[in-house]
Amino acid sequence: MSLRPLELQSEAYGSTGNIGGNLRRVMGTPSQDPLRIAIREALQNIADAAKLGRGPEFRIRVRRLSHHQRQILKGCVFRSLPACPRSRSLIQQAVERDDHVVLEFCDFHTTGLGGPTRADRIPAGSGSTDFIDFVRNIGSERDTEQGGGTYGFGKMALYGISRCSTILVDSQPAELEASARRLIACHAGRSFAVQDAGYNRPYTGRHWWGRNCPADDVVDPVQGDEARELASLLGLPERASAESGTSIMILDLEHEERDLQDLGQYVTETVLWNFWPRLMRDVPPSRRFHCRIEVDGQELSIPDPETIPPLELYCKAMKAARLGVGEGVHPIRSARPKLRLGSLAIARGLHVGRTNYVPNGQLIPAVSHHVALMRPVELVVKYMPGQPYPDDRVEWAGVFLADHADEVEEAFARSEPPAHDDWIPSSLPRGRQKTIVNVALREIRSIITEFGVPQGRHAADTPGPSLAGVADQLGAILSGVEGDAPSRRTRSARSPGGGKVQRARASRPVFVGLAQIRGTKIARFRTTVSQDADCSGTILSASAFVAVDGGKKASLDEDQSFKPEVLGIGTPDGTVKTRGGHLRIDGRSGVFEILIAIRGEVAVIADAEVLMEGDA
Known about the structure:
By secondary structure, the chain is an alpha+beta fold. Helices cover 22% and strands 29% of the residues.
């Protein structure tokens, strides 16, 4: 098929006015990074489009356009350019840019953008209006029950990360035949005016490229085989007839000249931090996200959130919040009106190092002490900071899941700004909805700040297993027996610092992993011993404590059922080792591991010191 150049329609003001000016300014200025906002908004829209009884499958692709693809843009899609000098220049620069990077959000097995293509021609009884809501209208009420958001802000967020404020939309609606494939290009620029017959004719700044209808001079999307061929020539994903959904290409991505691999990792980090609840293994198939991230055709690995810190703690809290009962769960209620507002669940654990997805990344906190706030749609709205433990070797993660009752969910939804990244009760009028949001936030803050994070315990009904046999396995543990806990990346021990060491010392032990031997959970800590000039340190002494309320250390001599015990100390390779909490090192320096046997569901920390001959 020989493709004809697309036709351009620039939206003129109607006789009663229209929305104009800088369209992106209509939605306000969010505080977060524009790219993160765009990713959040795009995936929220995908979640709302997953109405076919299965979770959405989507690909986020970062790629450079080939020379041939750029020629298709220049010669076929954007053969006609807007009369506005600024818009014309931006699009022209984009299609001629050799290093043209695009970002694509492609979803499958979703509803696609169905319904009529004209905002002023909606047939009576028409169901879906997704196409006109996304392509034509500015802002629409959400039409998904307890959904993530609306098309308004999300759409403008996509334009906002394009240097030329332009996107391509390719959709296969589920409700229509495969021949109804639709493709249209859209640009959101500044308003402008053109002199015509003695009048200044104003335009809103919105432009579309597709197929012109001669009867009314309105551009509709390219459809059917022509849309399918054009999408293929531009490198958009192929779609079988049953693979309904939408692909959105953001042209000339504003990526701040970042390396594309770094950009891909940035996307991965954003997806994990914002959408981990829908990526969990136990999410029902009808809701679970299936995500792939590609950079120039190379797929990046996306770990399960249950396997990486601190998300594994959030996943643990999420499971409890979904149940609404159990240890660490705090029901949040209001007295007037008498309603259950949701469940706050908190999980605690030992702190370990983070996976650095991007250089100098600051999205995932170094130490977790936050509550993830979310509505029943289970998309993270924001993280509310709470009181951290004074000892940063212990961290906690919380989840507040709003109740699914319509009145409660609606209150939280209406308190969100266009970016859906906060709950702002002051934005609501006086009444029940404002009370619901105010009370919930007040109660959550009280729990996580006033008294610290409560430390729950499970008392053992019987004494723990004998550690004698476990101690016999000391060498095996030190040689690297794999634990059964989620894989947590080891953080290297702290450097003792420069200059002369005045006294032999041990660095603060750092948690590096768990092992399971004969039914006993073993926590592994690592410390670095530095000797003084005389190598006078002779004994490495270790002790174990439980982290309790407020993060304090406490020996649990008064509660033997929870008392942790130092099982042994040794070198990581197991060549030097001993049972118990004292290892004779006789002037030796280097890295040593401390093995602590844990009883019960408690967070354990370790201390270490180097003793001289006279101290022992």
